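Handout, section 4.2: multi-component inputs.
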Amino acid sequence: MTDIVADNDEVNDDQEDRRLSASEDQTPRSFCLQSFVNLYGDEPHLSRFDHIKHYAKKHCGSVTFLCCLNIFLDKIPLLYCLKKYNIRKNLFGDIIAGITVAIMHIPQGMAYGVLTTLPPIYGLYVSFFPVIIYMIFGTCPHLSIGTFAVISLMIAQAIEGVVPLPMDMINNTTIVSNESNSLLNNEKVQVATTLALLVGLVQLLLSFLRLGFLTVYLTEPFISGFTSGAAVHVFTSQIPSLFGVKSPSRIEGAFKLPKFYIKLIRLLFYKINWISTAIGIISIIILFFSKYFNERYKSKIRIVLPCELILVIIGTVLSHFVRLDSKYDISVVGEIKRGLPSPVFPSLNSIDKLIVPAITIAAVSLSISISMAKMFSRKHGYKVSSNQELLAYGMANVISSFFKCYPSAGSLSRSVVQEGSGGKTLLIGGFSSIVLGSVIIALTPLFRSLPMTCLAAIIIVNLKGLFYQMKDFIFYFHISVLECLLWTITFTSVVLFDVDIGLYVGICTSFIINTIRTQKPRFVTLGQVEHTGIYKNVVYFPSAHQYSKIKVLRFDESLYACNVPFFKRKFYELIDIHLEHSPIISCREDTHKHADKFNFKYVILECSTFNFIDTVGVKLLIEIFNDLKRRGIVLYLSECRFEVRHTFDAMKFYEKTEFHIIYVTTHDAVTAARNQLNRASTPDHTII
Amino acid sequence: MTDIVADNDEVNDDQEDRRLSASEDQTPRSFCLQSFVNLYGDEPHLSRFDHIKHYAKKHCGSVTFLCCLNIFLDKIPLLYCLKKYNIRKNLFGDIIAGITVAIMHIPQGMAYGVLTTLPPIYGLYVSFFPVIIYMIFGTCPHLSIGTFAVISLMIAQAIEGVVPLPMDMINNTTIVSNESNSLLNNEKVQVATTLALLVGLVQLLLSFLRLGFLTVYLTEPFISGFTSGAAVHVFTSQIPSLFGVKSPSRIEGAFKLPKFYIKLIRLLFYKINWISTAIGIISIIILFFSKYFNERYKSKIRIVLPCELILVIIGTVLSHFVRLDSKYDISVVGEIKRGLPSPVFPSLNSIDKLIVPAITIAAVSLSISISMAKMFSRKHGYKVSSNQELLAYGMANVISSFFKCYPSAGSLSRSVVQEGSGGKTLLIGGFSSIVLGSVIIALTPLFRSLPMTCLAAIIIVNLKGLFYQMKDFIFYFHISVLECLLWTITFTSVVLFDVDIGLYVGICTSFIINTIRTQKPRFVTLGQVEHTGIYKNVVYFPSAHQYSKIKVLRFDESLYACNVPFFKRKFYELIDIHLEHSPIISCREDTHKHADKFNFKYVILECSTFNFIDTVGVKLLIEIFNDLKRRGIVLYLSECRFEVRHTFDAMKFYEKTEFHIIYVTTHDAVTAARNQLNRASTPDHTII
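Output:
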C-alpha cells in the first residue's frame, strides 16, 4: 500500500494543510483514494470465522436460566398484557369492544361459513376458537381474527377440488335427500379441518424458521391489488344467493371470468326469485344506510349500532312468521346444531391434494393479517413482530382445527370496528369469545329461518372496504408507474384467472419489477456548482460548470449484469464515441459527426450510486478502461464505497487497470484531471 | 419557493461568499437544499407529452428514402462485410477457417444428429443450411451455428413427448422391421422440422419486438450453471451408445437423476458389449490425445489436426473390413441417403404440444449463442447487436426448417476452432457450407459402417469445454456469494430435474437474487474525516469525528418496500432507541441500558445511496420523522437525488414533515445541526 499517486506528492509534504477546499484561487489539490485510506483509514479484514465468533460472543455470552425463561415467556405476549393491565383504564373499553366485535362476528361468521359451502355454524366456530388462541399468542390487540371473505372463497375452491358436487346437485334436477346432504357436509368439514391443520403447520414452520421477513415481499400494491381482485370473486359468488337462484353458486373454469358471467346471466334470466331479490336488495340498502349512520355519528355515540345483527334478527323473525321458505321457496339457513364441538383429530386422508391450496391460503392469510397488524401498529405505536404473529396464526389454525374450524385470518371490516370501539388490549378477544361461546351454546337454533339472501347482503356490504381499495390504483398511478403496474397486473390476473393463479402471478411480478427498476436508470452529466465542490446534474443546474476535455458522469444505479449493456451503450453515447459502423450508402449529414470524436481527455465516473457491483460490472469497467486508454482517454472513478472496492480487490481490478484511478471525491478527480491537463503545457482553463 | 430556512439567513446576505468550506476555524455555514436549488438550480418539469414530442422530433425529423433503405440494408450485415472485404488480407484465412470448421462439422453433425434420435444425415443438414443463412444475417464471424449438444438433447426430449417409442423398441424384445423404423423416423423428422419453424418464429418475434435486451436477464452465472448441468445429461445419454447397449438411451422421469442411474447401471450390468466399449474408450483416448497435441502445437502449425474426422475415417474403414456390425453385433450408422433435401413445408400437426418446448429451446439457443457472440465481440472489438442476432437465428431456423433441419444453435467447441484458425469475416460460413454441401451430395453413403460408439466418443470429448466450465463455481465462490448461489441452484436443478425445469428455476432464481441483494445492506455510522467535508464509515476510518448529540447515518441501498422493515429496525438500533418492551421477569443488567436513551438530538441520514424510493419508503421516513420529533430528536436528510425528491413531492412529503429537513451535503446538515446546538445555549463542541 505504498503511495503510487503521480500528482499527489504534495499531500505528504504538508499534511498539516490537508483540507479539501474547492475555491478556485487556491492551489488545486486532490486526494487519490489510496493515499486517503493510508492517511485516515483502517480497513479491518475480518474473516468469516471471526464474524461467527463475534456473533456467538454477542449472543451467547450471557445465557442464564432467567434469559431462557424470558425467551420462552416472550412467546406469550398475553402475559405482558396481563402484567401491565390497568383495570380502571382499560377494562370498560375492552368489554365494550369485545361485545361489539362479537355482535359483528355472529352474522359475518354465518355468512362466511355459507361462503365456504359449509353449514353456517362452522363459521361461528371459526369466530370463537381462533380468537381465544390469538389472544394468547398474538401481538396486535386491534386485529380481529376469524372468518374472512377472500379466505372463505379459497377454502370453497379447495373443498370443491377434493369433494366434487354430486351430479344431481349440479343439475339441480332432484331434491337432495337430507341424509346424502349431511354425508356430503361431513366430508366437506373433514377437508376444511385438514386444511386448517395444514395452513397452521405451514405458518408455524415459517415462524420456527424465522422466515417472517419473507412477508416484506408481499408489498402494499400487491396486497391491495390482490384483495381488490378477490373481492370481485366474492361479489360474483354471492349473486346467485342474493337473487335466490338455487344452483351451485360457483362455476369452475381456467379462464374464469367470461364463462362465469355467461352462465351467471343465463341462470339469472331463467330462475330468478323475485321475493328473495327484493329482500336482499332491501337488506343491502338498510345495511348501507345504517353503516353510513354509524360513520356519521361515531363521535357522538360511543357504541356502534349493530346493524348486521339487527338485520339478522329482523330477517329471521320475518321469515319465521311469513314462512318464506315453504310459501315462496326461499333458501333459509336451516337446522343448526347447538353447542360447542368436542375435539377430534382432523382426518389426514386427502393431505396430498390439499398441500398446494394450504400453502396458498397460508400465504394469503398471513400477508393480509400481518399487513393489517402492521398498519395498526404504525397508527398506535406498538410493536408487531412478524415471527410472533406467524406463531399466533399458526397456533390458532392448528389448535382450532381440532374443533372443526376451517382456516382463519384477520378481517378488515371487523378490525376497523374493534379499533374504533375503544378497546386497547388483547383481552378484547377474550370478551368477544365469551359472548360468542354463549351464542353457540344457547342461541343458534333460533336462526333456522334466516334467509340466505340476508347473509349474501351482509357479505356484499362488507366488501365495501375492499372495493374502496381500488382507489389505490389512482394513488399509485400518480406516484409510481411500476407500483401501479404491479397493482394492475395482480388485480387483473386475480379477476381474469383465479385467486391462487393471481397470487403467484403477483408475486412473480413483484420480483420482476424489482429487477426492472434497475434496468434503465438515469445516466447524467455532472457539472461543478460554482465555487463549491458539489457536482450536480447539468440539466437541473444549468449554471454548473463543465471543464473542457473533462466529462463527469453519474449512473444512478448499482452496476450489475442486468444493466451492463445499457450502461455501456449510454456511456459511449455520453462521451460522443460512436460504436456503430457507418451505413452502407453513406448519407452526407453523418460525416461531420465524427469530427469531434475525441473531445474528452478525462472521463470521471462518480460511483457513489453503486451500492454493489457484480463480476460482470467489474469486467465492463476493466474493458472500458482499456478501451478508453487505447483511444487516449483516461478514466477516473470517484466515491467508491467499501463494498465496491472489496469486489474490485477480489476481481484483481487494479492489476488489470491502474492503481490510482480511484479518487475520494469527484472534486478530487476533477482537480487531478485539471492538474494533468495544465501540466500538458496547454493551460486549458476555459469553461464551456 | 420562498426561503424558509431557519438558520440560513446569512446565505442571502453575503451571496458573494457562498463557498462551501469545511474548515473548523471559519464560521460554519450550511446549505439547505431548497435555498441551494433556488440559487443555482433550474428543475425543468417536462410533461409526458413533451417527452414524446421531443422523442418524435429527434427520430423522425430526417426521414428520407436513403435512410429507409439504409435501415433495410442494416438488417443484412453480409453487405457491410462484402463492401469492406479485403481479398488479399482476409481471403486465405477465411478459406482455411471454413474448411477446418467444415471438417469438424461432419463428425459432430452426425454425432449430434444421433443424439436427437434422428438418423445422422439430418445433423449434416443442420450443419449446412443454417450456416448459410447465418452468414447473411448474422453479425459475429466467429460464431459457428449448427448442431449443439444441449439443444440436441432438448430436441430429443421434445420428439419423445410427441412421438413415443413403440413398446417393442423399449423392451428391446423383437428386432424392429426396417419399414416401421423408417415410418417412425419420418414422423420424428416432421416433429423436428415443426420445432425448428416454431423456434425460429419465437426468435423472429423477439427480434421484431426488439426484445433482445431481455437476454440481459440470462446472466453469466446462470448460463454457466445451466450449460454445465446440461452437459451432465448429454454425457449420461451417451453412455449406452458408448458401451454398446442396444436400448433406448434416454429414460424419462420427473425426478430424473436417481431413477435414470439405477436403470442405467442395471442395463450396463446385463447387456454390455465389450468390443464396442473398447472401441469407444480407445476413440476417447485418441481424441483427447490429439486435442491436447493440437492445443500444444497450435502456435507452430497453423492448421488444426482434424482429429475427429480422422477418427471417423479410421472407424469406418475398420468397421467395414472387420464387419463389426454383423460379426460382433455393434451398432453402426447404417444406410444414409445421398443428396440435399428438396424444400417441404413443415407439418403443422402437433403444434400445440410443441409450443412450450419451442419456447424453451428458443430461450436456451439464443442465450447460449448470444453470450458466445458477445464474448467474441469483446475479445475482437466488433459490435454484436442482440436484436440483429435474434433475427439471424430466427431466419436460420425458419428457412432451414423447410429443408428438414431441426433447431440450430451456436456451438462452443466449433466456435473456438473457427476463431483460432485465423478466419476474420462472415464468409467463413460460406466456405464451410461449400465443403459440407459437397460431402452431403457425394460422400455420405461411405459412412454407413461407422460404429455409433465412435460418435458417442466424439460427443463425450466435446463436452470437455462445458465440464471445464464447472470451475466457474470456484470463481464465483470466491467473489460473490449470490452469484455462486445462482450457479449452484441452476446447475443442481438441471442435473436433478431436467433441462427445461432447470431453465425456469434458474431464471426465477436470477430475479429473486436481484431482490435479495437489496434486503440487508450495510447501515453505517459516518464520521467527519478530520479537516475535510468528507464523511466516512467510522469502522473503516476510526479517526473520523462524531460530534456529540449528532448521529450521521448512511443506508447502502435504495429504500423501498422490501427493505423497509430492516431499515426501521436497524435505524432505531443505531440511534440507541429500544422499541422492544422490557422482559416479563426483569434481569438487572437491562435496567441501566435505558439511561442513555435520548443521547442524540440530531440524526442525519445521508440519502446519496437512494437511487430511488417508493411509496412505502417515503411513508416510513414520514413516520420516523414524526416519531423522532415526539422524542425531541430532529431528522435531517442530505444529498437526495432529483428522482427521490420527485417522489417526495408526489407524496406531499414536505406537508407531512417540515420543509427544511433536506440539506445539500451531509456536511451542510451537520453544520446546521451544530449551529442549532450552539444556539441552544450550551456550546457543545466536544468531540467523542
